[in-house]
Design brief:
Length: 249
């Protein structure tokens, strides 16, 4: 009966939920997340290999703390299944699983510990920003899909073109169209590692054209997201102004 009155939650669950979502608890968790990230980085330093046992103890400590927080969040969640399968619920779980490295057969999970840093986005201001970005991606998903298809087409055409120009001059680097696709991807993304590059006049001219196309391809998604995010911010500010005027009345 008490649970029905409180929307399916007991008084204890509600009180614990307020603590978990409070600024003090959130601040402690954010500190632990950053500390775990620092520990993960330091553990890869060869000069600190002699402290491996201490890192194991630290990792176990994080395991206990993050596991306790995860269980507490499930306990206080109004809809437990919804929290478990939510983005942040999955990130919370991934922050715990890597510590199973201590169990034989689970050592591969050790590399996943860097995912703990994503839990930093659970801060309220970051949640709002992430939600806004997810909504923005949803609004331009068709445009982004079209861009992915167009980019794939350009990679194919660029690989075919550079193969035509450079195959005879550099058979070791451009021996086939699949081999040339690495150069095409690097060039279209304007990264330009310099490990393979054209030496013929035709290849250089073709590369210049590919680079110009690549600049445009990189700019398109940035422009789309910036436009949608700006519109979302303007709408949010207008909504806040309307709410403030209604409250004043």
């Amino acid at each position: 009966m008490l649970n029905d009155v409180n929307g399916g939650q007991s008084d204890l669950q509600k009180k614990l939920g307020e603590i978990v979502e409070g600024p003090v608890f959130s601040g402690i968790i954010q500190f632990l997340i950053l500390a775990s990230a620092v520990a993960f980085v330091l553990e890869t330093e060869p000069a600190l290999e002699k402290y491996e046992n201490y890192f194991i103890i630290v990792d176990l400590t994080f395991l206990v703390l993050f596991s306790a927080e995860y269980i507490l969040r499930i306990y206080t969640a109004p809809v437990k299944k919804e929290f478990i399968f939510s983005f942040f619920g999955i990130v919370d779980l991934l922050a715990i699983l890597p510590s199973l490295v201590l169990i034989p057969g689970f050592r591969v999970l050790r590399v996943l510990r860097f995912l703990r840093i994503f839990r930093i986005f659970k801060a309220t201001r970051f949640i709002l920003a992430v939600d806004r970005m997810i909504d923005a991606l949803g609004e331009v998903k068709r445009e982004l899909l079209a861009l992915v298809i167009l980019s794939s087409l350009f990679v194919y055409l660029a690989a075919c073109g550079i193969y035509f120009f450079e195959n005879e001059a550099q058979p070791e680097a451009f021996g086939s169209i699949p081999d040339s696709m690495w150069w095409a991807i690097v060039s279209l993304t304007t990264i330009g590692y310099g490990d393979v590059y054209p030496v013929t006049a035709g290849g250089k001219i073709f590369t210049a054209l590919v680079a110009l196309v690549g600049v445009g391809l990189i700019a398109i998604p940035s422009g789309l997201l910036a436009s949608v995010l700006t519109e979302a911010r303007v709408e949010e500010e207008l909504q806040d102004e309307i709410e403030e005027k209604e409250n004043e009345k």
